[in-house]
Major facilitator superfamily (MFS) profile domain-containing protein
Amino acid sequence: SMFSIAGPIGAVLGGLAVDIMGRKRIIIASHCCMFFGWLIITSAQNGDMIVIGRIMEGIARCVGATAST
């Protein structure tokens, strides 16, 4: 559910960022952010860290999807 909440935020941010920085840089940045989101999830000590990681990963995934289309 966190992905569904974070998705629209990432889509809007991705559209704006593509105009400013370009597609290639945004896709690379979104993959780095996605990596750190999954790193937070895998090293989570409590439920809050999992939620933060999922939000971060959801935003990054939608930013990357917006930039790649």
